[in-house]
Amino acid sequence: MKDSELHEHNLFRLRTLTDYEVAENDPDVRDWPLIDENGNEFGNIEELIVDPKLMKVRYLDVKIDEAHAGESFGKNMLIPVGLAVIHEDEDKVEVPEISRELLLRAPRYGEPGAKINRNYELEIRRHFEPGTTQAPAQTTEFYSHRHFEEDRFYRNRR
Question: Contact, 128 vs 98, CB < 8 A?
Fold first, then answer.
């Protein structure tokens, strides 16, 4: 199966899209460390999950440091872009409102390239926003949420 067939709702790994790249004025955060709310490194950003039609980053694909990844869990997790903040001067990305404990319990999705479907996205939303029962079925409404606000991700730059 081609990687382009793996994702519902038009989500793709940036590296698989030959005609797309990080915008010239934005830093490419791939390979940067992910830091929790206490400044502890948790893993590295392996990839950006993007919606190429809208040219929006939706998730950071984080490879969890082996010291934190349990044997029974996949070693990658997705963090909605609006929950993270770039610290460009230090080449790191922080999740300022998320503890290490919350990150450890976050849903994993297995190997890079694994299918990202709406059920998994709902699982992520419920994890980072307890009390969420349902989300809009329409893709445009689903991503009209603070978890996907790129301005939050770039707030230290603008």
Answer: yes
